[in-house]
Amino acid sequence: MTAESLAASYVAPGADYAATASEAYQAALRVIESVEPRVADATRKELADQRDSLKLIASENYASPAVLLTMGTWFSDKYAEGTVGHRFYAACQNVDTVEALAAEHARELFGAQYAYAQPHSGIDANLVAYWAILAAKVEAPGLADLGAKHVNDLSEADWESLRGKLGNQRLLGMSLDTGGHLTHGFRPNISGKMFHQRQYGTDPQTGLLDYDAVAAAAREFKPLVLVAGYSAYPRRVNFAKMREIADEVGAVLFVDMAHFAGLVAGKVFTGDEDPVPHADIVTTTTHKSLRGPRGGLVLATEEYAPFVDKGCPMVLGGPLSHVMAAKAVALAEARQAEFGVYAQRIADNAKALADGFLKRGATLVTGGTDNHIVLLDVTSFGLTGRQAESALLDSGVVTNRNAVPADANGAWYTSGIRFGTPALTSRGFGADDFDRVAELVVEVLSNTQPEGSSKAKYTIADGVAARVHAAASELLAANPLYPGLQL
Ligand code: PLP
C-alpha cells in the first residue's frame, strides 16, 4: 500500500495494532476450536477467501478489527427490550450506555435530531420507519378522533376500523428495475403488501431520475409516503427536489440511504444531496459504505422521534446489544477526519472504474456514475447478467448481477452487473487500480460466449480465467486486507 492509500484507510493501525488484533483472533480461534473445530476452520478460510477475492459487491465492505471484536462479547447475552432508560428488563445499565453512545454518534455524524440504533438490519430499519409514519399519521390522529389515548382503550369495532385505515395507505417508491429496493413497495416484500403502492422509474433515454415524472406520479397518486433512495442507481439524488414534491402532495419524505450513508457521513454528499436536512425519516444499514457491523439505523425529526423510539416492541424484539456496541465504535470511526478521505476515494474510484469501462467501449446505465456504484449493461457482450457474474467469479472477480431498467432478461438472469467501490477502497485501492479492474473485467467478458440459447451457461476462452485471476491476485497482494493480521 502506498502512503496515500494508507492515510485513506482504517487498515493503517501500525504494527502494534496488527499484533494485538492477531493475538486476540488467535486466542479466540483456539477457544472456538476446542468446541467446534469446523467453525474455527471455516472462519480461517473465510478470511483467506476474502483476502484473495476482488470484492466488487456494492453493498459489502470490510469492518475494522475494532468493530469486529466489539461484536464478540457478552453483550450478546443481554435482553434489553424497550429503549434507553426505559427497559422491560432489569440490569440494562451497560446496554443503555452503548445504545446511547451509538445514537449520539449517529446524531452528531449526520446532524440528525434523533437517532435509533436498534434495528437489526436495513429491512428492520425500514419497517420501523414505515410503522412510525403510520403511527404518527394514521393511528395517533385516529385515536384523537375517537377520544382515546391508547389502542387498548378502543372497542373491538373502533380498533377494526383503525386497523383498516392503517393497512390502506399509499406509498410511492423507486421501481426495482431502475434501482429501488425490495422494501420500497415491491409486492413480494411486506412493504408492497402493507401499502397500496406505486412506483416511479427513470427516464428511458438517459436512465436518470426524472423529477417532473416523480412529481406527476405523486400528484396523481397522492401517497402518504414518498420513498427516495436506491440499491442500484449509479447517480446522486437531489433530496431538496424530493422534499418539494412531498410537500406539494402532503407526503412524508422517507429516504433509505442504506447504500450511500458512508458518502453522507464522509461529507461527499452535502447540501441538496444530503438527505438528512430534507427528509422526515432516514434509514440506513451500518455495514455497507458506512463500514460498520451488520445492522440498521433510523434517523428522524423530533416529530417522528417518539414513534420511532417504539420500534421495540412495534416491529422489533430484543435489540442486539453487542451489535449496537459495534455500531457505536464504527460511528466513532466515521466521525474521524480520515473517514472523509475514505468516502471521497470511494466516489473517485467509482469514477475511475466507470471511465475505465467507457474507454474500453462498454455500456453503462446512465453513462457513468457519481456515487459508489457502476452498473454495466452486459448485453453488449452478448451475455446475461447471470453468465457475466459466473464468468467473473471463475476469474476471481466477485460481483453481483443486477437488473437494468426494463430488463429483457428479468430479475433472475438480468442484463447487468453492479459494481461497487467501498470494499476495495477500504483495502487501499486507488484510481489506477480501478482502471486495471475495468481492464480485467472487460477481458473476461469479451472472451466469454453464451452456450447455445441458455441464459446461464457460458464458455470462457482457454487461459483467460487463470490469467485474470493471477492479475487480480497481484492487485490484492499490493493492497492487503487487514495487513499484519495473522491467524
Ligand atoms: N435498503 C436498501 C436500499 C438496501 O440496498 C438494502 C440491502 O441491500 C436494504 C435496505 C436491506 O438491508 P439488510 O440486508 O440489512 O436488511
UniProtKB/TrEMBL annotation:
Reactions catalysed according to its record: (6R)-5,10-methylene-5,6,7,8-tetrahydrofolate + glycine + H2O = (6S)-5,6,7,8-tetrahydrofolate + L-serine
Gene: glyA
Pathway: One-carbon metabolism; tetrahydrofolate interconversion; Amino-acid biosynthesis; glycine biosynthesis; glycine from L-serine: step 1/1
One Pfam family in the UniProt entry: SHMT
Top-rank lineage group of the source organism: Bacteria
NCBIfam families on file: PRK00011.1 (NF000586), PRK13580.1 (NF010094)
CDD domains in the record: SHMT
Keyword annotations from UniProtKB, A to Z: Amino-acid biosynthesis, Cytoplasm, Methyltransferase, One-carbon metabolism, Pyridoxal phosphate, Transferase
Modified residues (N6-(pyridoxal phosphate)lysine): 288
Cofactor: pyridoxal 5'-phosphate
Subunit note: Homodimer.
InterPro entries associated with the record: PyrdxlP-dep_Trfase (IPR015424), PyrdxlP-dep_Trfase_major (IPR015421), PyrdxlP-dep_Trfase_small (IPR015422), Ser_HO-MeTrfase (IPR001085), Ser_HO-MeTrfase-like (IPR049943), Ser_HO-MeTrfase_PLP_BS (IPR019798), SHMT-like_dom (IPR039429)
HAMAP family attached to this UniProt entry: SHMT
GO MF assignments: glycine hydroxymethyltransferase activity; methyltransferase activity; pyridoxal phosphate binding
Biological role: Catalyzes the reversible interconversion of serine and glycine with tetrahydrofolate (THF) serving as the one-carbon carrier. This reaction serves as the major source of one-carbon groups required for the biosynthesis of purines, thymidylate, methionine, and other important biomolecules. Also exhibits THF-independent aldolase activity toward beta-hydroxyamino acids, producing glycine and aldehydes, via a retro-aldol mechanism.
Site (Plays an important role in substrate specificity): 287
Boundaries of every Serine hydroxymethyltransferase-like domain copy: 33-137, 169-440
Protein name per the record: Serine hydroxymethyltransferase
UniProt EC number: 2.1.2.1
Listed GO biological process terms: glycine biosynthetic process from serine; methylation; tetrahydrofolate interconversion
SUPFAM superfamilies: PLP-dependent transferases (SSF53383)
Residues bound to (6S)-5,6,7,8-tetrahydrofolate: 176, 180-182, 302
Cellular localisation: Cytoplasm
